[in-house]
Amino acid sequence: MTQQITPELTQWIVAQAQAGHSAESVLQSMMASGWDEDVALDALESTLRSHLNEQAAAQGLPPAVPVPEPDVDESPLYLDGGDRQVAVLSVMASPRVVVFGGLLSDDECDALIAAAKPRMSRSLTVATQTGGEEVNADRTSQGMFFQRGENALVKRIESRIAKLVNWPVQNGEGIQVLQYVPGTEYKPHYDYFDPKEPGTPTILKRGGQRVGTVVMYLSEPEKGGGTTFPNVFLEVAPKRGNAVFFSYERPHPSTKTLHGGAPVIAGEKWIATKWLREGEFK
Ligand code: PD2
Ligand code: ZN
């Protein structure tokens, strides 16, 4: 028999969810009344997603889109990065934050810094007014961009990230390397492009919105320089080789992904950032 998602079924699923029944128990009821498991799962997912999107739209929020997501459902201690096992150190649901241990080896950290050093200049950020690039007073670090796939090391790291967060390599921007010296910081900001800014439509032509960020720590300062999430009072220590991943399903503060690079107090901090777009970044 073919099984159809009728308006009655949709209403029933939403009512079950609103009454506090778990998705698992709704799935069990559907299967008990003859639904094929895969069809029931699809029906549940699509119904609940569109219901949440309708609610979000009613509150004036932009729609949610699919985002990169590491497979952390079963609380693994390690994830397969293809060529390297990467530790899962912390997981937060909202904002979605995953802290990775040993995403990079010490040699990879050193090699990235060495390749970046001769190309460093005062960091530019995307100019949201025009869609071009500008010096940003909130970001006092020095930086450079690698092209995606620019060399063997960059390629290897990009494939590892793609595997870890289940997101195509082609959707990634080139890796940016930043250096912070004492007194420099990156004030709290969102990584997505503000839909209200006039330059945003131009920026979005290259792969759509940013939907995820991976900040990799290449060198440890002695003090300071954590990545902070002020909405949830979280600070991730900038431990060499480790990385913090976070995703944002809509370009809106409701994602709680406000984050910053705290001032470095002593020593030098180097990071490599990979931003992930909705679509192919050309
Ligand atoms: O250096 C950091 O910890 C940091 C903080 C906030 C990096 C970024 N944002 C970024 O590269 O987007
Ligand atoms: Zn950022």
What does this molecule look like?
This protein starts with 6 loop residues before the first helix and ends in a 5-residue tail after the last strand. Strand 5 and strand 6 form a beta hairpin. The model has no long low-confidence stretch (mean pLDDT 94). It is α+β, with helices and mostly antiparallel strands. Helix content is 26%, strand content 27%. It has a 9-stranded antiparallel β-sheet with strand order 1-2-3-14-10-17-8-7-4. A 4-stranded antiparallel β-sheet has the order 9-15-12-13, with no helix packed on it. Strands 5-6 form a two-stranded antiparallel sheet. The chain has 2 domains: 52 residues; 200 residues, Sandwich (Jelly Rolls), CATH 2.60.120.620. The structure holds pyridine-2,4-dicarboxylic acid (PD2) and zinc ion.
